[in-house]
Amino acid sequence: MSQDFDALVIGGGPAGLTGALYLARFRRRVRLVDDGCSRATRIPRSHNMPGYPDGVRGGELVAAIRLQATRYGVDFASGRVTALEREGTRFSARLADGSTTHARAVLLATGVTDVEPPMPYLAEAVRSGALRYCPVCDGYEVSGQTVGVLADGDAGAREALYLRGFTARLHVFPLSDTVEISARERQRLRDADIMLAEHAVASLRLADGGVVVRHGDYETRCDSVYSALGTRIQADLAPDAERDEQGYLLTDRHHMTSIGGLYAAGDVVQGLNQISVATGGAAIAAAAIHRALGPAWA
């Protein structure tokens, strides 16, 4: 089964939904394919999303934008795109169920996935705020608390230094015996009075709303721990598009990749991984797609 659209959006998080919403309001025929795994739905409550003075749950925000896009006629398809190819003046996207969608332009909003620490009851830890991933998102919420950072290298030390602006009670825990923290970062941690554990993490467990980190013969209780283990960038559908050294897709000021007609927005693109940035980038991409497609009445 094959269907044709003006634009195809891949990914149903804030970026993908915003892009689809804009395109639908431009009177374009747009399909959005979503596998239901948006990273945003895992956010317990975001307090830096403008317009929500009491914060908003990630799942609620995604559901609200989806409802809004539905009202303007976005065609939603559940599933995963397994292959994306350029065929002349259009793209062909094959889904896992065997169906195919054709479109003149594509917006990739496939995002990233977090590298998760070896921690039991991980989903519960995220929901309660015992385990966190984004100090830009919620560093304010741990102000003055005892916070641990799970590190697999210098990036973990730098994340702890970033958090030093919110709390002075910080610990860096190497995740394994093979983790190396450079002499420069060790000195910066000492200068900031941030404790660096001598032994690697032996276990992590939830306790009384926080996390107990066992390292060597010691145990440290933290109100929250941050996982500074990085992310996996979901850009496999665009293997020929240019990327930066970390693997993020590079785009121009209109959010088009190095492949004509293929746009990208959200966390899959180089830049700050924030909902407001994702939706803004998607709006720019959608406007550019609309212009590139030519007159809607033609």
UniProtKB/TrEMBL annotation:
Keyword Flavoprotein among record annotations: yes
Enzyme Commission no: 1.8.1.9
First-tier enzyme category under EC: oxidoreductase
SUPFAM superfamilies: FAD/NAD(P)-binding domain (SSF51905)
Domain FAD/NAD(P)-binding: 6-280
Domain of life: Bacteria
MF term (GO), any: thioredoxin-disulfide reductase (NADPH) activity
Keyword terms, alphabetized: Flavoprotein, Oxidoreductase
InterPro entries linked: FAD/NAD-bd_sf, FAD/NAD-binding_dom, Ferredoxin-NADP_redctase_2
The keyword NAD belongs to this UniProt entry's keyword annotation: no
Stored PANTHER family: THIOREDOXIN REDUCTASE 1-RELATED-RELATED (PTHR48105)
Protein name: Thioredoxin-disulfide reductase
Gene (name only): trxB1
